[in-house]
């Protein structure tokens, strides 16, 4: 069997780099990298091109293109065909020799390329949860029409995919997403109010990018996963639960109608989920050390505190309302998180900004791509206005 072609969107990020580690461990006889999409990390991208020699590479803009060409020439590496922007990412996602597309960009930038990959009938290994949050209805509709496979790379949804494998939907009562609880799990409300960016970026169990790590600190990450789980597996809001599990050993569970609970356990390394999505339905040996059950002293579980972490309730509200509200919530969250990272607003301002934008939004049906893009754009404008207002209030009163 010839090696299967792989395209990677977000190749220089955490998931992208781990994808290369998985591909290299599986060997070139199984997979070949045919296309890469990245932003502006020229040095890392040049390393990837030199090692894997893709046919096509997309970068952020023409300035980065010139920098990449110079870097490749300096190394004596052949320059592949280079494209830019969203159109370039779409070319990567629909490359004719790509059997599987790893969608690992952060935020809304991966939305259109991922949709185009599904429309083209590709297997999509999805690590960009915002894609399904923004437009799960459009994504799943496109996959059904083209016959594309949608395999989750998020550790929680990947775990659910494994737990549900072979089970009858009618026999599953609910699905249970586990959450580490983030860096503020044991902090009281007053301490969370004063949280700094550095503190929010100290995730207790996973090494991830800044945006996802902040989402884990607010627990919005888990809220986004609730919406994602709905579209991936067809469960309603009342059939999706969250439980805080600080050890992050159990990645998710399903509860059967007879009360039995099936859990997927594993080490906290994204390479497991990436390999599963690439090789499904087959399994291959992995470089990862197996989970040492004898060394597990205890596993803890607790209910999430919705008062200290209101983003969870906002996400359930978005899912129950539907239409363009999830896309609105997602855009407002992205803007608020970046404003917090830039120290323009406080940590508790993140859910405040999101809620204010959701309250102002006139929910419309999710008819097509334009409805999603319009909701995303207007939500960002509204979020920026709310962020500016909040920053001004803090300067005047000195109260966060």
The fraction of residues assigned to DSSP E strands is 5-15%
- Number of DSSP helical runs: 16
Strand order of the largest sheet: 4-3-2-1-5-6-7
Low-confidence stretches: none
Strand tally is: 11
| CA gyration radius, whole angstroms | 21 Å
Secondary-structure element string: EHEHEHEHEHEHEHEHHHHEEEHHHHH
Oligomer: single chain
End-to-end distance: 60 Å
Mean pLDDT: 93
Give the biggest beta sheet.
Answer: 7 strands, parallel
What is the total domain count?
A: 3
Please state the overall shape, judged from the principal axes of the Cα atoms. globular
**Proportion of helical residues:** 40-55%
Structural class: alpha/beta
Polypeptide structure, described:
There is one protein chain. The protein is an alpha/beta fold and 400 residues long. It folds into 3 domains: 4-152, NAD(P)-binding Rossmann-like Domain (Rossmann fold, 3-Layer(aba) Sandwich), CATH 3.40.50.720; 154-267 and 275-310, no CATH class; 322-400, RNA polymerase sigma factor, region 2, helix turn helix motif (Rna Polymerase Sigma Factor, Chain: A, Orthogonal Bundle), CATH 1.10.1740.10. Helix content is 48%, strand content 14%. It has 16 helices and 11 strands. The chain has helices spanning 14-26, 42-52, 62-75, 85-93, 111-119, 129-146, 155-164, 189-193, 197-200, 210-218, 220-233, 271-279, 311-321, 325-341, 349-360, 369-397, and strands spanning 4-9, 31-37, 56-59, 81-84, 100-103, 123-126, 150-152, 172-179, 240-244, 250-256, 261-265. The strands form 2 sheets. Strands 4-3-2-1-5-6-7 form a 7-stranded parallel β-sheet, with helices on both faces. It has a 4-stranded mixed β-sheet with strand order 9-8-10-11, covered by helices on one side. Strand 1, helix 1 and strand 2 (31-37) form a beta-alpha-beta unit. Helix 14 packs antiparallel against helix 15 (349-360).
């Amino acid at each position: 069997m010839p090696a299967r072609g792989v395209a990677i969107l977000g190749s220089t990020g955490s998931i992208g780099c781990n994808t290369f580690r998985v591909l290299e461990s599986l060997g070139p006889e199984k997979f070949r990298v045919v296309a890469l999409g990245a932003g502006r990390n020229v040095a890392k991208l040049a390393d990837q091109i030199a090692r894997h020699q893709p046919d096509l590479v997309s970068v952020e803009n023409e300035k980065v293109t010139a920098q990449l060409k110079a870097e490749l020439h300096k190394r004596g590496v052949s320059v592949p065909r280079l494209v830019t922007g969203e159109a370039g990412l779409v070319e990567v996602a629909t490359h004719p020799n790509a059997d599987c597309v790893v969608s690992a960009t952060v935020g809304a930038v991966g939305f259109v390329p991922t949709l185009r990959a599904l429309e083209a009938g590709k297997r999509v290994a999805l690590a960009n949860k915002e894609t399904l949050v923004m437009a799960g209805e459009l994504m799943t509709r496109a996959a059904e029409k083209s016959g594309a496979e949608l395999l989750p790379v998020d550790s929680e949804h990947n775990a659910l995919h494994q737990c549900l494998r072979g089970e009858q939907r009618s026999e599953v009562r609910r699905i249970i997403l586990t959450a580490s609880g983030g860096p503020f799990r044991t902090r009281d409300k007053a301490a969370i109010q004063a949280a700094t960016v550095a503190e929010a970026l100290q995730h207790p169990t996973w090494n991830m990018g800044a945006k996802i790590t902040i989402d884990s600190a607010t627990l919005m990450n888990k809220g986004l996963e609730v919406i994602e789980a709905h579209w991936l597996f067809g469960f309603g809001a009342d059939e999706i639960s969250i439980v805080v599990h600080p050890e992050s050993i159990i990645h998710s569970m399903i509860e059967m109608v007879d009360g039995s609970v099936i859990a997927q356990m594993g080490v906290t390394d994204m390479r497991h989920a990436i390999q599963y999505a690439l090789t499904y339905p087959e399994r291959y040996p992995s470089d990862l050390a197996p989970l040492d059950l004898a060394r597990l002293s205890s596993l803890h579980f607790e209910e999430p505190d919705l008062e200290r972490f209101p983003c969870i309730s906002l996400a359930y509200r978005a899912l129950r309302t539907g239409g363009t509200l999830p896309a609105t919530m997602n855009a407002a969250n992205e803007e608020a998180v970046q404003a917090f990272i830039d120290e323009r607003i406080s940590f508790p301002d993140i859910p405040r900004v999101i809620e204010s934008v959701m309250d102002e939004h006139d929910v419309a049906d999710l008819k097509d791509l334009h409805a999603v893009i319009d909701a995303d754009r207007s939500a960002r404008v509204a979020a920026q206005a709310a962020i500016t207002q909040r920053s001004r209030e803090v300067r005047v009163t000195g109260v966060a």
